[in-house]
Structures are given as structure tokens and as C-alpha cells.
Design brief:
The complex is a heterodimer.
Chain A: H1 19-23, H2 28-35, H3 37-55, H4 58-63, H5 84-119, H6 121-126, H7 132-160, H8 172-200, H9 204-224, H10 238-244, H11 247-250, H12 254-277
Helix pairs in contact in A: 2-7, 3-5, 3-7, 5-7, 5-8, 5-9, 7-8, 7-12, 8-9, 8-10, 8-12, 10-12
Chain B: E1 5-14, E2 17-27, E3 32-36, H1 43-50, E4 58-63, H2 72-77, E5 79-82, H3 94-104, H4 110-119, H5 133-145, E6 151-155, H6 163-178, E7 182-187, H7 190-194, E8 199-204, E9 207-213, H8 214-219, E10 223-229, H9 236-239, E11 244-250, E12 253-258, H10 263-269, E13 274-281, H11 284-293, H12 296-301
Parallel strand pairs in B: 3-7, 3-8, 5-6, 6-7
Antiparallel strand pairs in B: 1-2, 1-4, 8-9, 10-12, 10-13, 11-12
Classes of the chains: A mainly alpha, B alpha/beta.
Amino acid sequence: MTTTTRPTAPTTTIPGTSALARAFSGSLFTNTLFNNRRIFTVWAVATGLLAMMYASFYPQISADAMTNVPEAMQGFGFNDTATAAGYLQGAVFGLLVPLLATFYGAATGARMISADEESGYLDLLLAYPLGRTRLLLHRYAALATGATAIAATVLGAVLAVRSTANLDTITVSGFTAQALHLTLLGLWFGALATAIGAATGQGRATVFGITAGIGVATYALHGFAPQIGAEWLRYLTPFHYYIGGEPLRNGFLPTDAAVLAATTIILLAAGAWRLGRRDLGR
Amino acid sequence: MTTPIELNELTKTYGSRRGLAGLTLTVEPGEVFGYLGPNGAGKSTTIRLLLDLIRPTAGTARVLGMDPRTDAVELHRRVGYLAGDFVVDGRQTAGECLHFLGKLRDGVPTARIIELADRLELDLSARIKSLSKGNRQKVGLVQAFMHQPDLLILDEPTAGLDPLVQQTFLDLVTEAKTAGQTVFMSSHIMSEVEAIADRVAIIREGRLVALDTVADLRARSFLRVRLTFSQPVPAEQFAALPGVTDLTIDGTTVTCSIDGSPDALIKAAARHTITGLHADTQDLEELFHTYYTGEQATVRAA
């Protein structure tokens, strides 16, 4: 009887793992990105498409310019549709895109800690050699990647229609600056939701609700503040540092960006601090 | 060799609710330690304290000689943990999940993961969310055993597993013991740990009510006897016999428990024609239920 020498297949890969999954298995950050690749893509593509669609309406809107905007709504930036920057700061970068970035931050931030604490997955991850602060940072890094992808897609989308939609009066660097501020806005609300989840241990729905509520409330405050004669109130909202300095016209605003970045870091630090000291809930 | 688990007056209260009340116990190196109690007794609370998922209200825990809180990361390298309800991100396949978890442990040999999955008959290419509870539990078992940790902490490890896989699990635990690993496993079913545990602790309402070897616990149990006779027997001949308790006489059938020697019962029965004799040690399960419900004292006195 002959002994067939079966070539000992080097068992280097585990069955059921795609090359992509293995490439993204190196850390909790990359694994989180891998598991969220579809939802992050949907967020970026949907936001980008909406931005592109509304940006390309500009020629029609500017044709029948002087659209009547109620005086009470002027704080929202809808009063100036005569210039490209004015229009974009109203409908596109003043309403649609920032609110989507806000909801992305609230929804994703609520999933990064709260959802997994609720399900019990956090129990497993934290029984691994992985500190709580590191877990929070890896999770937040994945959220940040998604926020950056949204802003980059929006930037690509508006640049794609820039000349066909008569938006040439805005420089490429103006659009880039606005996209950077948009990234920071998404990061801010992402940090808020992540921090609320990390600090309180509340469930996903609660964390999303609170963060989205704060988002809508501060958006409204930013819009109505001038009408109620309290312009200073705008400075208390993240939206002021996102669009108040008109990055489309004035380019990147280091001070405003620094305010958003610094408060983001403070939120995350506070969340990580509380997370490190509390009991994990079930 | 360091003591795997050392608890000293470990206490955890949740608001006014008490999770654990001054628990003191030691798990010796290389032993399989069964941790039993009814649901809600504080088993998971203890385990989550050992892993620094929650922090004690009072008392101390040392795990592998380390402080669960300050040495958490170093400690977790040497511990394998299976939660009571094992949950991971359902969007990945079992293989992807285990590959990632292996990487999180700085690399676990792929062959080891495949070997464990094969033995448990786990389909690595199935998406986690499509798996049944039992199959998901297999993923949990693989990740707990894959890096051959010094200490395995298993919370209700056999929940949802079919009998065949349960046997594989028992083999895995036996191998771990042979390799010098320590196993701390909780359960609310005695028979589950009876076969492999060296020692068993029973907790109820956050307190230790018994801690002994399985053999000694067994020695404490009674003999259950059922005798059948050719014709009805008078009750008074059996009622006052030494060591006989729980006596019931139903026509020609006598059933009772014997604590100690069966001599008196056999001699009393020998006066009649015996058609059947059945004797069995009290099910350990029953013994545990008496501990669970706190009726041990009344049973003894009956």
C-alpha cells in the first residue's frame, strides 16, 4: 500500500474570512470600520448625493432670485440666494449637510459604546487585553473616519458640479475649508454621543435621542438668536464655529476650528474618564 | 505558583439591592472549580468583578496574583472568558470574528482556532447573526480556549449546547486541567459540573452556603430506598427505625431515605416476603436544591 503524501496545506487562513476582513483585523479600530463599512458608505454617498443635487439647483434658484424669505428665518442664512456662497450657506451647507452630519454623529456615537454595552459585546471586548480608554479611542477613530468620508464625499460632489451649476465664484479652497469645518461638526456630535454613552451607560436609543435633541436645539438656537436680539447665544452652539465665519467665502478659520476640536477633545476626555470609573451595565 | 483566584469579603451592592455579600473563597492552581447557584444568586456578579467589568463595593479580589482593576490589561492576557450570553458583532462571520479576536490577543495560531472549531463542529463561514444560540456559544468557547490561558472563567458554558458538544466541552476542560490551567465555571445545574469539578461552591443570595469536593458532597447525601412486598406491611414496623426518614407506605410499597447504615431497615424488611428492592444515592441535584432553597437544616431534622 502506497502512502500518499498529502501536501500539508499551510493553514494560514481561517475558513470564512475574506481577504478584506483579514486586512482589517489588526485592531479594534479597523475591525469596527470593517463591520460598519456598508453603513458608513451609505451615509457618505447619500449625503454627497443630496449635496450634489441641491448644489445643482443653484442656477434655477438664482434665476428667480430674491425669493421671499420670512424675516424671522434670516438667521438661518436663507436670505441671500443671489450669490453662490449665499445660496450654498443656506440650503446646502446651512441646513441639509450639517444636520445630516449631526445625525451621523449622534447615531454612530450612540453605537460606538452604548449599543455594544446594551448587547453585552463590550463585556467581551473589555475582558480582552484592551483598556477602556483605548477601546473608546479605537471606536471613536472609526466614527471619525466615517465623518471624514462624509465630508470628503460632499466635497467631491460639490466640486463635480461646481462649473455646471455656476458655482465658480467659490474657490476650491473655500469648498475644502467648508468640508473641513463639516468634518469637525460631525466629529463634535460624534464625540458628544460617544461621551454621553461612555459616561452614563444609557442605552443606544436614549443616547441618540439626547444627542440629536441637542443638535436640533442648538441648530434652532443658532438660527433664531439674531431675531431675539441675542446674537451672543450663537457662540454657545457648535454651528457657529461650523459656518458662522463663512468658510466658503473666507476659507479655513483656525480659531473656529480650534474651538470645535478643543471641545471635542474635552468631551471625549470626560467620557473616557467616567467610563474608566464606572461599572459596566447590562 | 500564584493562586488563581482569591476573594476576601468581596461585596457588591447595587443601590439597595445586594449582589454579593462578603464572599471569601480561594481557587487553587490547576483545579476545576464549579460555582453553583440559582439564577440571580450572584454568580455573574462575581465573575464580572473578577474581570473588572464592575468594581466591588467592599473587599478585595486577586486574580492570578494581580489586582483586577490596576492590572486589568496584563491580567486579561492570561484569562479566557466566556460570558453567560456570549455576544459579538453579528455582521461578521464566525471565522472573521475569531480571526479578529485572535489578533486582539496579539496573535493566536490559526491552526488552533481551526482545530477547536472542528472539534466543536462550528461552521466558521457562517455569519454570526445567522447562528443558533448553541452555535454562537461554540464561537464563545473557541475564543475562551484558543490562547490556552492560565485561567478560564466560564459563565454557564454549556447553555444551549447539545449533549454531543457538551461532551466535547468536558474534554476541553479536562485537557485544560491536564495542561495545568485552572478552570472556574459557573452553572445552575449540578450535573453539569459534577463530572469534572474538583471542588464546588454553592452560593445563594450573594453568600457562600457550601464549599466542598464533589466526593464529600456526595457522601453527605442520603440513600433512597424503595421496597416492594408480596402483601401489605404494617407501618409501625418501619416508622421508628434508626436513620429512616421521609417514610411513605403505600400498600405493599415502602419508600424512605436512610441516613447512615441501612441495617435496621433490611432486618425489619426481612420479616416479610420482598418482591423488589431499589436503592439509589440521593441525586446530587436534589441535594443542591436543598441548598438553593435554604432547607438543608429542616431536611436533616425531619
